[in-house]
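Materials and Methods. Structural model of FANCJ protein. The 236-residue sequence of FANCJ protein from Nyctibius bracteatus was retrieved and submitted for structure prediction as follows.
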Amino acid sequence: GPCTECSCSSGKETGKDTSNTKKKENGDGPFIPKIFFGTRTHKQISQITRELKRTAYFSVPMTILSSRDYTCIHPVVSSSGSNRNEMCVELLEGKHGKSCLYYHGVHKLTEHHALQSAHGVYQAWDIEDLVSLGKKLRACAYFAARELMVGADIVFCPYNYLLDPQIRESMEIKLKGQVVILDEAHNIEDCARESVSYSVTESQLRAAREELDLMVNNNIRQKDHKPLRAVCCSLT
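The predicted structure was written out as tokens:
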């Protein structure tokens, strides 16, 4: 049967001792941890949500954290290639006098899911379902998924959302006191290595060295630029 402490519970008291249940910092009610389920690929998330639909917990509030590559529906940004993040930020900041109307419609998407939950027809969904609904409602699926994390009991995401501290901070993921499940955890080592690695081409190094040469030759912050130029020279 359903457990007694998540949203699928009937709400009946079990008489069980809950004295060691963690309390919220402000003291009003018990702290129920979220489940963060990390996978290696987005395709695996699709498989897991499909299996979730077949369980007794298909109606538990959930969300899927994903990159703009998978969730952006803005016609210009989504077709821009590799600089989606930068273009999205520019639109949010209102640069060039333009803004993102899909971002301003996020509430339509989150309220739609909240409405489903209230009527008891909330079901596990895949990122494609959210994107499809976002296009229909003209609402941003990327930021909607982030907002849905607040009320979610299960949060699905790729490994690096849990392992990379910069991504955790930007996505406002707090793992203290939460439940973390890592699917196929033998892949964690490679993922952790990728999170602290960076790829650069020889042509990029040569271009950087030329720019640093100009800085040094024109007496612009030589103390900072000389060591950087030395690194570029040693790598090339």
